[in-house]
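User: I'm preparing a small set of examples for a lab meeting where we compare how different chains pack in three dimensions. I only have the primary sequence for this one, and I'd like the structure in token form so I can line it up with the others. Please keep the answer compact; I'll paste it straight into my notes.
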Amino acid sequence: MNQQGQPIIFLPEGAQRLLGRDAQRNNIQVAKAVAGAVRTTLGPKGMDKMLVDELGDIIITNDGATILDEMNVEHPAAKMLVEVAKTQDDEVGDGTTSAVVLAGELLKQSEDLLDMGVHSSVIVKGYRLAAEKALSTLSTLSEDVTISDEDVLNKISVTAMTGKGPEKARFELSQLVVTAIKQVAEKEDGEYVIDTDHIKLEKKVGGDILDTELIQGIVVDKERVHTNMPKKVESAKIALVDSALEVKETETDAEIRITSPDQLEAYLEQEEKMLRTMVENIKESGANVVFCQKGIDDMAQHFLAKEGIFAARRVKKSDMEKLSKATGALIVSNLKDISSTDLGDADVVEERKIAGEAMTFVEGCSDPKAVTILVRGGTEHVVAEVERALNDAVGVVAASIEDGKIVSGGGSTEIELALSLRDYSKSIGGREQLAIEAFANALDIIPKTLAESAGMDSIDTLVDLRSKHEGSPDGKYFGVEVLKSQTANMFDLDVIEPLRVKKQAISSAAESAQMILRIDDVISGSGKGKGMPPEAMGGMGGMPPGMM
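Assistant: Understood. Below is the structure token output for the 548-residue chain.
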């Protein structure tokens, strides 16, 4: 029988538990620490982070999603913020740092409300109302853009790349991105649909960032399988084969008994005949280039070379699909059925050496719906950072065309939303009003951070921006001009972002903050290799020891 006052233990020995306010405070501290880790990377004057893994490999970047992914966080609240960055990266490609910083600031603002005695469920409701209002207001702040507005699309791409590694070449790279996006865009039911996977970024160390080029076709990181094959094929007829050019093994266990040299010779002749038939099928279809997803037998390589057919093997499935989109070829599984209608076209297929490595270029495709950007740079770290910047640029330009909506950057949109939410909070009343005001204050973190990175006084900058936003019709476009350390009209300075970046950042940040605020009990495993490490439960100040 349980004596009065004696605690009932229902968790296994070694389990850790944080209850109520302690659990909330701990989760908020961790989220603030994660946001703080990436906050200094925000904007054109944002700083870079050097990440070193256990093998000593180095990544230098200011891309929020990459930093959080490589930090290898342990704490569950920290993992939730990493998910925010990943979602933002998958949906738009840019704005990952903004989304995480905003989520951290929402939780920081909620801490003050919790200390005032406002219940977390009231804060959650207020944040939900504020997020809904912010998203509806965003649509009224947006301007229209179409696929033919090449100048505007270039500005959007330049904005996404400003402050990143390849900034010096951002105008040239933006031109490549916009051309590539327009090439792969497809119209469905009157609207443009862009699959960014159809823009292949192929990295090769060497040369300069400005040597990065757009190939109207596909670059495959493979070489021809036989030295006697032609290095260059013009007016190429391309066959894509996803089965092996080899003699198939029997599916059931079988044993072949050979008792004389004649039988062995007959067996080898039959094998050779089967491989010769495969090559003849390819030749009769009219193909002079073959990309094979699987292996090509040595004998088959010899026959292909004799017929003057260029062949590459073990081509990645994703490359096969891109080759199909670029050349119009169908991927064939059975060589017996291959015909001229299955083949794709290209002006030239050529093996070239780039930075000492042989690669196959498939160029001159007519209206290719998949293209390649060959990324160059002086070192591996530079090339990797250029690729990340191009990924961001491709994402924002694609989002702008698909949605047809853009907003001004530089923190101008956040200031306008914050002012709108403060007015809106007065119509709500009750304690939820405090939460909506806290949401508005959290939005100020974006222009505040941009001002700090430019060496400006963040308070003076916020006051100046608010007065301009309230003072004139064009005031809503005023943000932080980081490069000249002043406030200015962002549309006049060509600082433009897709509407989707802002929408996704606000909804992701608000949802993750609400989810973390609803947690009042954190239970970790008993140290048997499962659950959260005990040290991740502690650490109230700064970055908790178990977070990284």
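A couple of notes for your slides: Confidence is low (pLDDT under 50) at residues 527-548. The domain at 223-366 is CATH 3.50.7.10 (GroEL).

User: Perfect, thanks.
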